[in-house]
Inverse folding.
């Protein structure tokens, strides 16, 4: 699905971070109706532009069982109006082996997601049920976009690798060389430090990389695209959430960002 | 709440890993009723023995919005029949700062949990909303009990610390020395390697440690208790899930494990 979107020149992912308190007129309807209506409008306005959608679990789970029902309805709606646009569940999950089955039933069965983000800390053995599920995308957190991401992710794992290497790059190596037996692995690398994105791209070849941190979090788009594109000028899913969904004109903002990404990828710029 | 349970000699945590497929007669009632009835029976039989309950998010989320409603009802029931027994939400969450607010509303607001497990990979800065919430317990994953836990957790972070030190011990140091400003931090350390538990205990002083991996996962109880107890012979929450909840006689199994823990802590044994 991603390859098809990329072949159409689409790299923009809209993050459906539907913070209930920030939704205009949120208090008028009930939780399910409010979340559903808000997201349907965003989807109607952007589905012909985007490469993917990425709802973040926290904003829906924060609304309890109604939030889950709304999220399920929203994913169903995306599949109806834009069947070729994958939906990535940004849930950052991960538990020991058999327990992950519950999260997979939740994400891929109940909610109907096409992909999920997972946390690598427990290792590839723990995540095996995800890695074995070849019909979905597994996005492993590699370098996150938060200011304090380096506390553990930048630790030098030199004793293991002979050469100095930060943990997040070692994780990228492990995913590319050992975890990706099912061919369904992808990575999450924040846009906040393009040099780090370039290092990861060099390690993982043409593996898809989800890149949050553009816009509200301050990532530089041109540097990000130059660092993040694969050997074919593809391989990127560039996410913007608040900058689009809470804008006065979500379609206008999405079009602007989409045009900027294309400009970065045009022969003159690259 | 934990101190009070420990003062009563209670260290056993029952893991409510309510795998829907394994519940006897699961198909007779609906999801909510089945999950609720199964767990209510476990709670009725064990609440006077336990130190805490630990429902794992995956098994309830795997049942969709009905699973969430059942979990909420179960937590309400625990608070009613055993108001002094804390409920730890084993959800292994963690996202960037403001996004964690959604998970906190979910865990502490909607579901009524007293504590949550979190994943340290994104760093203490990302988890600040959890660490600032002083009225709840925050259990940081340190050394997990799965066979492949060492892939990253055992990495030697020597360049950072002058002396060889595995990542999981460095995380224990960071939590004890830097993250625990609100006094609400606890750790998760598996029972599968008692030596590692002893090392972590030496680093974190009397900080509460949740210890999974007894029973089905093969941890040795006597060695675990000797390694895990704090300077006062307390500080442990020893979890058993499948070994109790799917036993023919859950109360009998819980009593047996409770007695074994006490025996390990008795003057003769220690």
């Amino acid at each position: 699905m991603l390859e098809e979107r990329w072949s159409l020149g689409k790299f923009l992912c809209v993050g459906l971070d539907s913070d209930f308190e920030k939704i205009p007129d949120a208090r008028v309807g009930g939780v399910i109706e409010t979340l559903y209506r808000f997201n349907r409008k965003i989807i109607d306005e952007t589905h012909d532009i985007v490469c993917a959608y990425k709802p973040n679990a926290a904003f829906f789970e924060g609304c309890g069982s109604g939030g889950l029902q709304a999220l399920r309805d929203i994913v169903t709606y995306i599949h109806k109006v834009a069947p070729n646009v994958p939906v990535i569940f940004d849930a950052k999950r991960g538990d020991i082996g058999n327990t992950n089955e519950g999260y997979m039933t939740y994400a891929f069965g109940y909610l109907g997601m096409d992909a999920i983000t997972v946390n690598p800390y427990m290792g590839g053995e723990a995540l095996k049920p995800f890695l074995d599920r070849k019909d979905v995308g597994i996005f492993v957190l590699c370098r996150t976009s938060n200011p304090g991401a380096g506390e553990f992710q930048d630790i030098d794992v030199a004793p293991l690798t002979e050469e100095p290497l930060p943990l997040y790059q070692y994780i990228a190596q492990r995913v590319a060389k050992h975890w990706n037996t099912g061919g369904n692995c992808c990575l999450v690398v924040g846009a906040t430090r393009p040099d780090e994105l370039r290092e990861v791209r060099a390690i993982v070849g043409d593996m898809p990389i989800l890149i949050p941190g553009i816009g509200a979090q301050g990532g530089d788009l041109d540097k990000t695209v130059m660092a993040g594109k694969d050997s074919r000028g593809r391989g990127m899913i560039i996410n913007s959430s608040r900058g689009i969904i809470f804008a006065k004109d979500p379609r206008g903002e999405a079009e602007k960002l989409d045009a900027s990404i294309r400009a970065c990828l045009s022969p003159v710029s690259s």
In short: The CA atoms of residues 197 and 228 of chain A lie 6 Å apart. The beta strands of chain A are 12-16, 52-55, 88-93, 115-118, 137-143, 185-189, 209-211, 236-240.
